[in-house]
Amino acid sequence: MKKIIIIAIIFLSIISLNSCKDFLDIQPMSQSIAISNTSADSLLFKTAGEVEAALGGIYGDFRNEYFSLDYFVNGDAQSDDAYAGADNPSNFQIDEYSIDATNSNVSRDWAYLYGTIGKANTVYNNVDAVPDLSADRKNQIKGEAAWIRAFMYFQAVQLWGDVPLQLTEVKTISIELLPEIYPILFPARSPMAEVFDQIVEDLEFALESVPSTASDKGFVTKGSANAMLAKVYATMQSPQWDKVLQYSDAVIGGGYSLLPDFDMLWNNENENSSEAIFEINYEGTSSSGNWGASMFRGLDWKKFNTPSNDLVAAYDAENDMVRKNSSIIFQDVTGSWSDPYWPQASFPFINKYRIFTSNSPQNYILIRLADILLLKAEALNANGDVSGAAVLVNQIRSRVNLPNTSAADQQAMRLAIEKERRLELAFEGHRWYDLKRTGRAIDVINNAKGPGGASLGYMLNENSLLWPIPQSELDKNTKLVQNTGY
User: Fold this and answer.
1) Phi, psi at residue 278, to the nearest 5°?
2) pLDDT digits (tens, 9 = 90+) for 270-307
3) Element (H, E) at 347
4) With the C-alpha atoms ordered 307, 312, 313, 314, is the resulting torsion angle positive or negative?
5) What is the pLDDT of residues 323-352, one digit of tens each?
6) CA atoms of 211 and 136, how far apart (whole Å)
């Protein structure tokens, strides 16, 4: 009876866990079936079609709520580039650095990321056993799943710091297997360094396994693997700038090029362009429409991620009208809603996402060449090559008709690159993470200016740089420990 009770508890725990419920394949309870059982009857994927569909399901997660909305709230509204906008209290907490462990965005983002990680684990760990699939295709599928898993862990480690490393899935429940099952279902947090090591391992495997090109930029390629490696090595607790240079150079030499006109990135006439490295593709149908675009633009209700006074002032101070006009549009919302930061007659919206129907065909570009060129500039400057960094910064500036940078020493160049990344990549989900990884978040955020140049009064501190572990996860898993300050 005790065995039955224990197994029942484990079973109920499995089906209740948000991070597991979408991907676990629970076999009939038996004390004789082991996790490693690979007989024909126990194969998770019995045909090539089944595993291809499962891989498609992982890619499909790039169209979920995390990437349609929260990715940009977390990267932009959490920075000095945007206010939360709309009327969601959870978003207000994120914007104002007052998040608590019951914040609904925090818990759902944890569930989204670990849900996709679980799906990637299932494909990665089971594709080799599929009987009617070539060895090359199996390896490529594993590489794609590994890249996606790494991408999700990269999000998680930036948001929460130490996070659980879940790399396997439960296939069978039995009393004998409890010592193996329990750590999978209820893992402790792994140190950030270990998480980064796993991310690098997955990305390096992907680099060796995936093709150089694909039918569109929504699939993993060697370019996206190199780009992510450059970004990861720049974000580690101790950045490895030589590695950033290595992988940035691999991207730059991989056939990518800047579009001649900055606005071409956003006019919806140049999707999957030469500049895009990884891009979420939408067809504009009921099953493949980007509803997220309507969260940022439109006059029917007050939208999320209102461009900030501080960002508009930064564009104006630089006389950067090309990127300002491509990134922000001002419209009259008189009689629709009020706002503490902007007048109704001239209210700003994000202009990079311009088709804002409920089933929009608007693509999201998650990684593009300009990002990598500026990361390489950052690496060159960190290694003392200020003039080399200037060449790359000027390449970005020349496209938008700005003069060469005046930065002449390492510190000035560091700030010039920070500014250039802000103006170039606004509303693409990068700013908050850039400020964190460079150690500039507290100083920049606490000095952000609102209407008329007045202080916004933010009081960001070291504890607020990481999110709290969701209370719902702490309640389910006693091995999890809360972040300091929550």
Assistant:
1) -140, 125
2) 999 999 999 999 999 999 999 999 999 999 999 999 99
3) strand 347-350
4) positive
5) 999 999 999 999 999 999 999 999 999 999
6) 11
Name the token pair of 350. Answer: 């994000």
Please write the tens of the pLDDT for every residue from 102-161. Answer: 999 999 999 999 999 999 999 999 999 999 999 999 999 999 999 999 999 999 999 999
- Please give the Cα distance from 287 to 282 (Å, whole number): 9
Which pair of structure tokens corresponds to residue 369?
Answer: 């060449």
Domains of the chain, each with CATH number or no CATH: 2-40+48-210 (1.25.40.390), 281-354 (no CATH), 366-465 (1.25.40.900)
Give the residue, 122 or 174, on which the prediction is more confident: 122
Q: Quote the pLDDT of residue 127.
A: 98
CA–chain centroid gap for 296, Å, is 18
Phi, psi (rounded to 5 degrees) for 5: -65, -45
pTM over 0.90: yes
Question: Which DSSP helix (H) or strand (E) runs through 4?
Answer: helix 2-16
Q: Which of 282, 291, 212, 216 is nearest to 253 (CA)?
A: 212
283's tokens: 């067809």
- The 8 Å CB, 24+ separation contacts for 413-421 are 413/377, 413/381, 413/386, 413/389, 414/378, 414/381, 414/438, 417/374, 417/377, 417/378, 417/381, 417/389, 417/393, 419/314, 419/318, 420/374, 420/393, 420/396, 421/371, 421/374
Separation of alpha carbons 198 and 221, rounded Å: 19
